[in-house]
Amino acid sequence: MTRLYLDANATEPLCPAARGAALAAMETLGNPSSIHAPGRAARHILETAREAVARACLARPADVIFCSGATEANALAMHALGKGRPILVGATEHDSIRTAPSAAILRVNQDGTLDLAGLDETLAAQPGALVCLMAANNETGVLHDIEAAAKICAAHGALLHVDAVQAIGRANRGWLGMGAASFSLSGHKFGGPMGAGALIIRRGIEVEALTKGGGQEQGRRGGTQALPAIAGLAAAITQPYNNAQIASIRDEIEAFCTSLGAIAPGSTAPRLPNTTSLILPGVRAETQLIALDMAGIAVSAGSACSSGKLAASHVLTAMGYGEQAGQAIRVSLPWNVTADVVPLFTAAYAAMVKRCLRAPAHSA
Ligand code: PMP
Fold first, then answer.
1. Could you tell me if residue 362 is inside a domain?
2. Number of domains in the chain
3. Ligand 1 centroid to 186 CA: how many Å?
4. Ligand 1, atom 10, residue with closest C-alpha
5. pLDDT digit string (tens) for 206-230?
6. Sheet harboring 64-67: ordered strands across?
7. Residue-range definition of the domain harbouring residue 179
């Protein structure tokens, strides 16, 4: 059976450059903290990776703290920046941000973008807060206007942390240059191996490690660095994505599905090129996911992190979709997608709609 992997926002396929760099690093003997020659060879791989990441992120090498992934990077950012400040998080944030203790929620508009007037109002009452916002939403692909949010934060003496996980490679920006204090990324979300991520943080901000260990990463994140995953992350971050072609494939799929009655939340907002969220009214997400899986197509319902427990999407709930928040699948196209997926996906979707709604549907 043809298997189509359309769940890139959960994890992207490994790109060849990342695979090569990770394998080479795996063959390198030595701990980057050791002083002898093998240690120095490992250190060279680590620091070359740090320079590549810094260049791609319009930051300095010293601004890059390598860690295990974005969950850890987000926790480290909130730990470093949130000391003594109230924490405000967008309603559609990933759980690694949204579930921070005592975080207050910032409203989003119906299209999933941040309510900027609401941010301004909230900060007027809580100046000097830490605001955490994602650059791009993992379920809908909707982009927050980080530049505008950064200006509002600056006007109220607030700090801004950006969860840039889904934007790297698809909607990269110089977030520090825009005024963010830090941003997070995760290698496997843009073609690197799982197990490495980074917090990029503005110079001069003190970071007390969450894990102290051997003082690695300038004492800001203890523990031996995952060299193969970091080398792969650095190789992947410079890979060009064909975003225009990916967007046109996404648009074709979305147009077909909406012609069969699906609703695409967030599709009127600026968003990632590879993502569409598709509500099929009256049909539970789980039913759709299983039907497509049986047809050889991998998509997800809501974020992958919550796919073991298929509750209604908090993202769609925040956008006002009520019961339909439990009736959406997410299609997220990987970097190596080709136009061949369109007839395969649309045929399977049409068959699923026909079966689930027991009504004639368009043929693909
Ligand atoms: N933020 C966002 C927006 C994400 O999509 C994810 C992964 N689903 C994370 C943070 C966490 O990344 P990781 O699981 O790689 O730590």
1. no
2. 2
3. 7
4. 70
5. 999 999 999 999 999 999 999 999 9
6. 64-67, 197-201, 182-186, 159-163, 130-134, 87-90, 104-106
7. 16-236
Using the mean position of ligand 1's atoms as its centre, give its distance from the Cα of residue 294 in Å: 26
Q: Which of 185, 214, 236 is the last residue of a domain?
A: 236
Residue 71 Cβ inside 6 Å of ligand 1? The answer reads: yes
132's CB contacts (< 8 A; 6+ apart) are 74, 77, 78, 87, 88, 89, 90, 93, 97, 100, 103, 160, 161, 162, 163
Confidence category of residue 309, pLDDT binned at 50, 70, 90: low
Q: Which of 57, 67, 305, 356 is catalytic?
A: 305
pLDDT digits (tens, 9 = 90+) for 236-288: 999 989 999 999 999 999 999 999 999 999 999 999 999 999 999 999 999 99
Residues 225 and 246 in one domain: no
Is residue 76 included in any domain, yes or no?
A: yes
Residue 131 located in a structural domain: yes
Same domain, 69 and 208: yes
Residue 306 clears pLDDT 70, i.e. is over it: no
Residue 214 within any structural domain of the chain: yes
CATH number at residue 98: 3.40.640.10
Confirm whether pTM is higher than 0.90. Answer: yes
Provide the pLDDT for residue 362: 44
Give me the chain's average pLDDT, please. 94
**Is the domain of 67 the same as that of 104?**
yes
Q: Say if ligand 1 is within 6 A of residue 192 CB.
A: no
Residue 363 has pLDDT above 50, yes or no: no
Helix locations, the chain, DSSP H: 16-26, 37-56, 70-81, 95-98, 116-125, 146-155, 175-178, 216-219, 227-237, 243-259, 285-294, 314-318, 341-357
| Residues 61-120: tens digit of each pLDDT | 999 999 999 999 999 999 999 999 999 999 999 999 998 888 899 999 999 999 999 999
Contact 323, 336 (CB under 8 A): no
Claim to verify: residue 199 and residue 304 sit in the same structural domain: no
305 close to ligand 1 (CB < 6 Angstrom): yes
Domain finish residue from 175, 209, 236: 236
